[in-house]
Prior knowledge:
This protein is α/β, with parallel strands linked by helices and about 230 residues long.
Amino acid sequence: MRGLYAIADVATLDARGLDPLAFAEAVLAASPAALQLRAKDVPPRQALALLRGLAPMCHRAGVPLIANDRPDLAILAGCDLVHVGQTDMPIDRVRRIAPGIGVGVSTHSLDQLHTALAARPSYVAFGPVFDTTTKKSPDPVVGLATVRVASPRAQAAGIPFVAIGGITLERVHDLAGIVDAVAIIAGLLPPVREAGPAAAGDLLREVAVRALTFQQAFSPQPAVAGATR
């Protein structure tokens, strides 16, 4: 896993008048590292329908689809992974329910990271690195200094490390050389303009550009002709 870990957050997209499937199509054009559906306040039947709509799109693009919180929905929809938080189902129980599906886990401190790494998840998310507005009750900001301590621990364990929380286009380059991937929600959407809401087509075009920019931040830089090491 390397690059953009894109999150389609239904509440955030609804507020901007965007359909999650259309949003996903724009993001998938950038070949991100992964796409997660976050549907916290959506009825399970609707969340399952969205996951079932996303699964063939992601699989055609060769991008892993991740369900948030619900291993049962992940199985039914044919997802590749499920993501759980500190107050969700423990990793070992997820594995019993969904033995063929990878599990990622959110962590918010070095102690939580240590515990998570011992369980050998498919990846760990760590943060919030910066202030975030997409969670109702966010955990304390960990900051770049703690990320620089945490990421090598995951690397030593051979587990991908995903930074999350308040990451913008301006901040991604501070993280690209430290972490494997960045999880992005709001940063994939342009700021709300004072002139009024933008048309969905204009928003989606900007989403596609932003997704590509995040992904390219993790691309190897081309060698300069004549350069010496």
